[in-house]
Amino acid sequence: MLVILIILAIGVAFYFLKLNYQYWKKRGIPGPKPNFLVGNMGRSFILKASPGEIFAEAYHKYNESEIVGMYRATTPVLVVRDPDLVKEVTIKSFDHFSENDYEVDKRHDPIFARNPFVLKGEEWRTVRAQLTPGFTSGKMKWLYPYLEKISENLVKFIETQINTNCEVKEICRRFTLNNVATCAFGLEGKCLEEENSEFRQLAKDFFTPPSSFFLMTVSPTLSKALAAGFIKKTIVSKFVDMVTQTLKYREENNIVRNDYLHVVSQLKKNSNNYKFTDIDVTAHAAGFFGEGYETSSILMSFVLFEIAQNPHVQNKLREEINKAFEENGTLPYEVLQSLPYLDGVVNETLRIHPPMFSLQKICTKNFTYTSKNGNQVTIEAGTPIILPVYGLHHDPKYYPDPETFKPERFMGENREKLTKYTFLPFGEGPRICLGKRFGVLQIKVGLAYIIRNFELSVNGRTILPIRYDPINIMTAPVGGLWIDFRKIEI
Ligand code: HEM
């Protein structure tokens, strides 16, 4: 009897799953055929491709369609191909798509669960508004001399590495960690100066293995059921200690430092409508730490790789930077911000290697739109929406010859001619990356000092063509990026 019941239950489950996989077909929305239980994520589950790569492939395959219906395991998800619909999702109809599709519980991960990236509704709105003053251009200008000093130390550090093999992601990580230590906590990170500095150790221990975030991407529901966190539990008390001690030291010694820790600690004193506790202060300082170094070091290492691969770009960039140094004696904040070729190089790297492959939103209220051929399509509340950043950035329709590195695409009138909402390295609209200004600033200043002082070429240890780690939701290169540096005498 029990056996019959089990067979019956499996049969019913199988029937409903089959029915579930008809979801997009029934609505006339094209997409790849799903496989039982894994949907379209099969290659992701066996670690052959990251979810972002799978979405990018579908983006390219269904190039006649504005949207593509796919299945993330058993969940129907909608991939948005059309830039006008990207605008609709991120800006025009933001109230239907205001949440990111990640679930983190405060009990399991008290730090990441407070990050604006995963907050929802009114709580997100309030916290976002509270943290925004920490990233104004005035704040960036104030931080700039610290970033310059760390960039000088970066040059000294690379000089000591010249005859060894240099993996630049690690070098960039040590640089961005020092920046974050200073700009968020007012502390010296010593990550370039000491092999085993406390901050480097903290960074190594910070994130849970990439598998947790991977799970959040392929199946947020399963990740929630398994109580997966993003930041290791053991790290929370270390951050609480660091923040408490630093604030105590400042108070006892009457030190007011205009950094991020000051901004978030003031929120505790001044917030009246939203209770801001010690754990909130710690969580936001730790948020700056986590987001400040990883995405930026990925991007910076890819910029170094691209300029090492493209000597004509490298020479042109060096000319621009040297001229700026020579005309001013140093490299003032405003001058750095006004260098068009440097800006083009950074943007073109963000296009080819966006640190985040794709963005995951969720539709919170039914949304009906009219497609270009006049059909009405209703996106139901609860449907995850994928913005295929990597696919859009590599579409020859918007970026001719998309695999070729051309900083000029982002300069002068070329930039004006780019199709809007096809360049999304930081997202768009009210949820656009909060730390964009800081991320780009620290990369630009570090690059300027490197390019002035060294000639770069790609070392044979770099695996070409670049492949991305399938378990990492960010574009982490398999095998690292290895660069040879040759000192230029100034
Ligand atoms: C160059 C490096 C960076 C890249 C490429 C990057 C990219 C992104 C992307 C794609 C998003 C998601 C946007 C969306 O949901 O539509 C995001 C969100 C966010 N980023 Fe960044 N980021 C970078 C650096 C930083 C830095 C340095 C910080 C802080 C110190 C930061 C803080 C945040 C925060 C708080 C959010 C959540 C915003 C919200 O949902 O309201 N990011 N970032």
Automatic annotation (TrEMBL):
It is a peripheral membrane protein. Its cofactor is heme. Keywords: Endoplasmic reticulum, Heme, Iron, Membrane, Metal-binding, Microsome, Monooxygenase, Oxidoreductase. Heme binds at C433. It comes from the Eukaryota. Its main location: endoplasmic reticulum. GO terms for molecular function: heme binding; iron ion binding; monooxygenase activity; oxidoreductase activity, acting on paired donors, with incorporation or reduction of molecular oxygen. GO terms for cellular component: endoplasmic reticulum membrane. Gene3D superfamilies: Cytochrome P450 (1.10.630.10). InterPro entries: Cyt_P450, Cyt_P450_CS, Cyt_P450_E_grp-IV, Cyt_P450_sf, Insect_CytP450_Detox. It is found in: Endoplasmic reticulum membrane; Microsome membrane. May be involved in the metabolism of insect hormones and in the breakdown of synthetic insecticides. Belongs to the cytochrome P450 family. This is Putative cytochrome P450 6a13-like Protein.
